[in-house]
Amino acid sequence: MKRFILVVVLSFAVFATGFAQGKNETPVTADGENVITLRWLMQVSTAEEKQQWQELAEDVNKVYPNIKVEMNTTDWNGYWTKLPTEIAGGNPPDILYMQSQRAKDYLGEGFLPISQFIKNDKDINMDDFYKGIIDGLSMNGEYYCLPYDFGPYVLFYNIDQFDKCGMSYPDTWNTWEDFIVACKKMKENGVKCTSVLPGFDRIYSFILGNGANILATDGTVRVNTPEFIAAIQALDDLIEAGYTPLQSDTGNANWDREQFYNGSSAALTDGVWNLTNVKAKSNFKYGVTMVIPGLSYRKTPIAGSGFGISKDTKHPQEAYLALKVLTSKESETKLAKWGRALPARASVRDVYYKQNEDVLGLKESVESSLASEIGITEITPKKWQQVLVTINQNLESVFLSDTKAADALNTAQKEINRILQQ
Questions:
Q1: Phi and psi (nearest 5°) for 304?
Q2: pTM of the predicted model, to two decimals?
């Protein structure tokens, strides 16, 4: 009995000693400074992108040895579900991704204003960043995020397929009729000209190109105008005519991209930031030109992204230092070389063009798209993410079933009105 008691006492002593040691096992730097771990929530589309962002996370630790960044990733659609859940849970990651067109839904509720950090920081020049994206990532006169990229949507195209069909490249498409002629000729050669995803972001340029100004000056959103309906019906007609494949993997936000990568479609409308995946996944020669002209003219939204700090972080100063590294000239240079970003910093932008000068038409199409008469930087209203979900659900009913565009968009408009009036 005594022996049993002695064993228990000794075991407890060992456990207690180990527990005490565990409590004090906080990582420290060579200088004896405690290492602070910051959690970072980021959206990525591919394994290649994840590896690139992981490298930048590690760069933070190289610049600031007492700061370690742990990255948690999800896909694009999943991010906009996970972010509000994390914010509402009261213990969100310290560093958060944000896109300019969706920012107003989240900045005031979940992000920490960083204006005071910037004001006291002699090393940062806000004039180096593209102003339209800074405006999109700010609110009520406060900076909330530092951007890393911006840019228009463009058209990536498969040079090999156009050569095989004996066709001129899409930079010769000046009207919607030019595009339809190309679609017909490609179909005769057994090729789908492009792919249409029932997702607003990647078809928005065509909607704008039909004169559909969906963001009204009174703060409302209009999706059932004649111009918007005609644009969606025209895209659905592409599917009906067999010029574009019918989506077989609903819910896959990369479906249209995958059709392009595997050669099932000859062209892809996407942001310049997706060049990194086109480079990694395409085994054919490709070029870049401006987006397909709409029924009326050629237009493209200009969007951008950056990083902010959770309002609930316990380490705001360290998180701000991490933001500076993630959006620094050095980081944006890497992103430019990888093709992952057209840098938000003017001082780094030429790196993107120089490093990718072998991509036919890249610089010309991007610079032309940024011209004021073509590129549009928009500030969207609050609840924009809810509006987008509603639009996309009803677009699916058009592109994947027999629902007419007018019926689907009238249904969407009623729901959007309800959302915005809440």
A1: -160, 170
A2: 0.88
